[in-house]
Amino acid sequence: MKTIIAKRVDSGTADTSEIRDLARAAGYTVVGEVTQSRRADPALQIGEGKAEELAALVDETDATTVIFDNRLGPYQTYNLGQLLPEGVEVIDRFTLILEIFGQRAQTRKAQLQVELAELRYELPRAEAKTSLAKREEHPGFMGLGEYDESREQDIKAQISRIKDELEQIEQTEQHRRERRRDSGFDLVALAGYTNAGKSTLLRQLAADLDVEENENLHPDLDATAESQDKLFTTLGTTTRRADLEPRDVLVTDTVGFISDLPHWLVESFKSTLDSVYRADLVLLVVDVSEPVDEIHEKLVTCHDTLYERNEAPIVTVLNKIDKVDDEELREKRDALSALAPNPVTVSAREATNVDALLDRIDRELPDWERERLLLPMTDDTMSVVSWLHDNAHVEDVTYGDEDVVVSFEARPAVVSQARSRASELRTTAAESA
């Protein structure tokens, strides 16, 4: 699919590198671009002369699509379509992102989130079609579709239905997270911009490289994460156990942030981000090989998104240090110190400093508590001892004639649950006496 990239900026030079990456990620072949520095034209986004230049380039290259790196209103899409050769589609960056999401969505949850985002995007366009139809114009051109008076209500009904289903899925996932916490698992989430190296880092942190153990323990979770140099390889969430004895740690890779996302799109993927918001620790992964101004801007966006609902500590991970020299790394650390105090520097690709990152994870996660329990010898005592071996770090078990003494350390939630189970054993023993 041949496409022309178009971008307007208020001033300066337009950077089309990200939109080109997005286009390639969606399977397009970029055959040309048109850029302009000026204030937005209400009717066309770009000026009329530049729009005519765009139409000529489309005709010359036989492009079938024009992708704008600007947000296009319904009327701008319509007006641009009338200037371009017949059959050429006009989309903007958000339509393109949704197209990529739709291609990558594998799970029911991801598919629902994509559908929700698409409907939220379509709603104002349905309203525009109504307006055009009332003016006896023809809104079927260039992406607006044919007018259907009932479409607005259909969209609103579908949005309501999908939100209800996503809420049910999120409740189920929250119950699973709580069960994992009760079972002694610390939950760590990887966050950051797309292509920062989160999926590669997850593979380095994972203990269960053959993934069989993880699949048996958590069959609802994806066991593998793709590591590719392209955007949005992770759309849902991928969770694996980390190599961090004696702790049991689950690390989750999530969909990457991308710049200038509209509120309706972020909101549609809110339930995926809940894996970040409800973690015990967030690793904010940054590509340190990018220009420092770009890193700074991305960190600000990530912090704004995370601090809105996140309560867990955040550790910044400066990834891809194999692409920068020591002096550049030092300069960038100093420049970013206000946003990223005491970061961990790693190369996920070459496994550099992964042990240091694991140590930092261990220090930042909630402290474990030491406990020594005296358990009466009953029919259920051995199942409690076995449960402690599964959910805590058992240091010693001493068996007497009438009782068992277990020394262990574990998450506070596990210690509390162990005390409760010991109390139940004592009540049972007293009733039997």
From TrEMBL:
The lineage of its organism: Archaea, Methanobacteriati, Methanobacteriota, Stenosarchaea group, Halobacteria. Residues 102-182 form a coiled coil. Its cofactor is Mg(2+). It holds the Pfam family GTP-bdg_M. GO terms for cellular component: cytoplasm. Belongs to the TRAFAC class OBG-HflX-like GTPase superfamily. HflX GTPase family. It comes from Natrinema salifodinae. SUPFAM superfamilies: P-loop containing nucleoside triphosphate hydrolases (SSF52540). HAMAP family: GTPase_HflX. Mg(2+) binds at residues 199, 234. It is found in: Cytoplasm. GTPase that associates with the 50S ribosomal subunit and may have a role during protein synthesis or ribosome biogenesis. This is GTPase HflX. One of its GO terms (molecular function) is ribosome binding. InterPro entries: G_HFLX_dom, GTP-bd, GTP-bd_M, GTPase_HflX, GTPase_HflX_N, GTPase_HflX_N_sf, P-loop_NTPase. GTP binds at residues 192-199, 253-256, 319-322, 347-349. The gene is hflX.
